[in-house]
Write a structure and sequence with these properties.
421 residues, alpha+beta, five-stranded mixed β-sheet, rod-shaped
Length: 421
């Protein structure tokens, strides 16, 4: 359902490119057909009227010769017809023979007059109904032809617009996969490279941009991995040295900070490996219900586990354990009890009853070194959910985040969908 916007206005419905192209071709076809039909109709009518004038002119000359030689009127000729149009009367007084066309609502009335030697005016009037009935047949044929042109143009527009729309839709899907991190996807391969048009040029440009972006991301990943790798040795030495300090509060603080630094370095290395897209899952069949019960009891014993529908999933136990531990750790660190873990078939859900996920995380997804809004601030470096998302991608699973409604107690909800096969 579309929400009503301010001022009582509703957003315009989305119109696909196919229908825009179809509508454009239909409108152009209708305009062309209309213009051509009017031109043909007017040209045919003008030709018929001109032919009728010529016939009527010959008939009035023939009637004049008969009248002057025999004194009789033929071919429905009349002398001094009172209904004779005024223009013909004026031309007759000037001694000129002429024709005149009067519009009678259907077939026009064609007049012809010629002045006689005795001062009288001989005239004829005829409605060429048979001739102009052909014009009606012509109009009918033009209507049928125009309709066929519009229908054919519309069908052609559907085909052309549909092909272009499909190519653009495939390009959009491929570009979305690239945006989701599938760097091996190429837009040009997705749409097919046989047709060389602007869509193909767009695909080439997007692929070039994706390659450049992937190169930069790979360079950043290598720098991050190199830095973290170089830090492992001194950090390990620091942790070892901290263990040798004499007991006391200062020693505890040093050991705590050294261990936090070691954890951060290990997390950064893991993120760098996941960003490299070289990780492979060691898939095994896992009974999800028993697996979750054991891992939750080891990580957050206070959390409750509800197995509504057990299932056997095809996954990597080590990576799944990492994802589950990070989700539980995030709930324990940023949320409030009770923490609930639900298993329903291939679905695994972790929920707390705290303030919920921040809006930017729900909109953009987890981001490294961003721990959320102030109401979810606390320990950590914002890498837990980032690692969970990366491991989920390696598993071929799907991880989504949402907030439970306030009427249901609120809280953050992380839902993991695992593949069965």
């Amino acid at each position: 359902m579309t929400a009503r916007r301010a001022g009582g206005l509703r957003p315009l419905p989305k119109v696909g490119l196919r229908w825009k192209v179809c509508a454009a071709i239909a409108v152009v076809s209708a305009l062309v057909a209309l213009v051509l039909s009017l031109v043909v109709h007017n040209a045919a009518r003008a030709s018929m009227i001109e032919n009728s004038r010529d016939v009527q002119n010959e008939r009035v000359q023939f009637a004049q010769r008969i009248y002057e030689s025999t004194g009789r009127l033929t071919i429905d000729a009349q002398l001094n017809d009172p209904a004779l149009p005024a223009p013909l009367k004026r031309l007759a007084r000037e001694g000129k023979r002429a024709t005149y066309v009067a519009d009678a609502g259907g077939a026009p009335m064609v007049w012809a007059e010629t002045p006689l030697a005795d001062g009288k005016i001989l005239s004829l009037k005829t409605t060429f109904t048979d001739r102009f009935s052909v014009l009606e047949d012509l109009d009918q044929a033009l209507v049928i032809g125009s309709t066929a042109v519009v229908v054919g143009g519309t069908a052609l527009g559907v085909l052309i617009g549909g092909q272009l729309s499909r190519r653009l839709r495939k390009a959009a899907v491929a570009a979305g996969r690239v945006a989701d991190g599938e760097t091996r996807v190429r837009v040009r391969e997705a749409i097919g490279g046989r047709v060389r048009d602007e869509t193909d040029e767009l695909a080439r440009a997007v692929d070039a941009m994706a390659d450049a972006l992937a190169g930069r991301l790979e360079a950043e990943r290598r720098v991050t991995a190199d830095i973290a790798h170089e830090l492992r040795t001194p950090v390990t030495g620091l942790v070892t040295a901290a263990e040798l300090l004499p007991p006391g509060r200062p020693a505890e603080l040093v050991r705590d900070r050294a261990q936090a630094l070691r954890t951060l370095v290990e997390d950064v290395l893991e993120v760098a490996r996941l960003d490299g897209a070289a990780e492979q899952a060691d898939l095994q069949d896992v009974a999800l219900g028993d697996f979750v019960r054991r891992r939750v009891a080891a990580v957050v014993p206070a959390a409750t586990v509800d197995v509504r529908d057990d299932a056997v999933v095809r996954t990597d136990p080590r990576r799944l354990e990492r994802v589950l531990a990070n989700l539980l750790g995030n709930a324990a660190r940023h949320g409030r009890p009770p923490i609930e873990v639900t298993v329903a078939g291939p679905y695994l859900e972790v929920r707390d009853h705290g303030p919920g996920f921040p809006e930017d995380l729900l909109h953009d997804g987890p981001s490294r070194f961003r721990t959320g809004s102030s109401d979810r601030a606390g320990g950590g470096h914002g890498l837990g959910l980032t690692i969970a998302t990366g491991q989920t991608r390696v598993l071929g699973a799907r991880l989504t985040f949402r907030n439970a409604p306030a009427s249901a107690g609120g809280g953050a909800v992380a839902r993991l969908l695992l593949p069965r096969d």
